[in-house]
Design brief:
Order of helices and strands: EEEEEHEHEHEHEEEEH
Helix content: 25-40%
CATH superfamily: Glutaredoxin
Strand content: 25-35%
Number of strands: 12
CATH class: Alpha Beta
Mean pLDDT: 96
Largest sheet: 5 strands, mixed
Structural class: alpha+beta
Radius of gyration: 14 Å
Shape: globular
Strand order of the largest sheet: 8-7-6-11-12
């Protein structure tokens, strides 16, 4: 299991660590219009799952904006998602205010299955949050890149994530 800290304090993650080379676990999240979205509904293209604790925090906001900018060149070849436990309405408000157009939102508040199945659900805080992570999944649902950011308040490796996405984008 990934060793992760939040503000330098160890946290407990629920679920198993997902590794490159394995099959992407299924999940059920809430998308735009309160539609239930699972892995199959995201299929057909290479996918980036950018996992953040909350879009209302500085690093999560920066992460989403940075990926939005970097994904512009790949727009039609890939699908990209920001996954958090934020309510879908808050996610939509953030993306509208920040002009985020290259990522779709997935709220894991329905049953926290993304967090549990990808090993990013933090259970040791007063409220559940998702740990910061990046997953790249090819069109055949194979995980080709997985990064569990070891300190939740730190940034992921944007360059490696985009390189991995480009490699499977076709």
């Amino acid at each position: 299991m990934a060793q992760v800290t939040f503000k330098n304090n160890p946290v407990t993650l629920v679920g198993s660590e997902v590794k490159a080379g394995g099959q992407a676990p299924d999940f059920t999240c809430v998308g735009a219009g309160l539609e239930l979205i699972n892995l199959a509904k995201t299929a057909g293209k290479a996918r980036l799952f950018s996992v953040v604790p909350s879009l209302d925090t500085p690093v999560c906001s920066q992460q989403t904006k940075k990926f939005n900018d970097q994904l512009a060149a790949l727009k039609d070849k890939v699908a990209a998602y920001t996954v958090s436990l934020d309510m879908p309405f808050a996610q939509g408000r953030f993306c509208s205010a920040e002009n985020i157009t290259n990522l779709q939102n997935l709220s894991d508040m329905h049953n926290q299955s993304f967090g549990k199945n990808y090993g990013v659900l933090i259970s040791s805080l007063p409220v559940p949050l998702l740990s910061r992570a990046i997953f790249v999944v090819d069109k055949n649902n194979k995980v080709t890149y997985a990064e569990y950011v070891t300190e939740v308040t730190s940034h992921p490796n944007y360059e490696k994530a985009i390189e991995a996405l480009k490699a499977v984008a076709g």
